[in-house]
Amino acid sequence: MVRLGNFFFRYRNAIFPISYLLLFWNSPVIFGNRALAFAIGLALALSGQIIRAATIGLAYIVRGGKRRQVYAKDLVQEGIFAHCRNPLYVGNFLVILGLGFAADSLYFLVFGVPFFAIAYAAIISAEEKYLRQKFGQEYEDYCARVNRLAPKLTGLRQTFQGMEFNWQRLIVKEYGSAYAWMAAMLLLLMKPYWINRNYTHPSALLWVLIALLALLTLAYAWARYLKKRGILVAEPIVEAAAGSGVMEQCQP
Q1: Measured between alpha carbons, how far is 109 from 112 in angstroms, rounded to an integer?
Q2: What CA–CA distance (Å, rounded) separates 203 from 193?
Q3: Average pLDDT of span 203-223
Q4: Does residue 19 contact residue 12 with C-beta atoms inside 8 Å?
Q5: Which of 104, 185, 190, 248 maximizes the CB count within 10 A of its CB?
Q6: Tens digit of pLDDT for each residue in 105-132?
Q7: Percent of the chain, pLDDT > 70?
Q8: pLDDT digits (tens, 9 = 90+) for 42-76
Q9: How far apart are CA 250 and CA 176, in angstroms?
Q10: What pTM, to 2 d.p., does this model score?
Q11: Better pLDDT: 72 or 153
């Protein structure tokens, strides 16, 4: 499992996007009610994004590893990491599950979701081995206090009150991931048009969705511009890992 986790950690940016293609494949549906499916999916994805936003805004960890290998300099235990050892992975999985429901895709929920569950479980196993070897008893004590995945809600209010939320860091570090899943949601709403090849008589809804996608893309471009120009900057951070979620990175 650890070897598999190191493999996924190293190549996830190439492998994971391929799995997302199932979202846009013509698949048997689950609900048969697109509005209901999309509402459930959007609620799940927003829940995942809120978890990611709270995590990054309060205490950030460097993502992506070192030379695409699991790496950590320090063990971060504050912020949301005081309540869950892998909050970013939990957020990622909720977003992925939300996209599956929004697509109302039986194929993605039967094949895609289990694939991501196995991949994240393997990555977490690899990270836990690394952290246990590097931090020893400190990490064992942390594991004894904090769950791997299920968030501990006790003391959550004190965590938010006792730390400053860094909005600039949130935007700088999260705008790309947020744009990816939100754009995917809009494209999934347009999915019936290209599945049914209904291009000759586009509805008003389609034009609204296209306009929203354009606005979302402009917001992404603006955030990227502000980041590249140094107008929006994340505060200097310590290269670190939190729990077994050492260098988590959202896919979409």
Answers
A1: 6
A2: 10
A3: 92
A4: no
A5: 248
A6: 999 999 999 999 999 999 999 999 888 8
A7: 84
A8: 999 999 999 999 999 987 665 555 555 565 677 88
A9: 9
A10: 0.85
A11: 153
**In this structure, are residues 60 and 169 in contact, taking their beta carbons and an 8 Å threshold?**
yes
Secondary structure element (H or E) that encloses residue 118, with its range = helix 113-135
Domains and CATH numbers, the chain: 2-166+237-242 (1.20.120)
Placement of tokens 């699991």 in the chain: 70
Which DSSP letter does residue 242 get? E
User: Which segments of the chain are extended strands (E)?
Assistant: 75-76, 241-242
Residue 24 is classified by DSSP as: G
Three-state secondary structure along the chain?
CHHHHHHHHHHHHHHHHHHHHHHHCCCCCCCCCHHHHHHHHHHHHHHHHHHHHHHHHHCCCCCCCECCECCCCCEECCHHHHCCCCHHHHHHHHHHHHHHHHHCCHHHHHHHHHHHHHHHHHHHHHHHHHHHHHHCHHHHHHHHHCCCCCCCCCCHHHHHHHCCCCHHHHHHHHHHHHHHHHHHHHHHHHHHHHHCCCCCCCCHHHHHHHHHHHHHHHHHHHHHHHHHCCCCCCCCCCCCEECCECCCCCCC
Q: How far apart are CA 43 and CA 47, in angstroms?
A: 6
Q: Are 244 and 172 in contact (CB under 8 A)?
A: no
Q: Of 103, 55, 8, which is closest to residue 240 (Cα–Cα)?
A: 55
Q: Identify whether the C-beta of residue 132 lies closer than 8 Å to the C-beta of residue 140.
A: yes
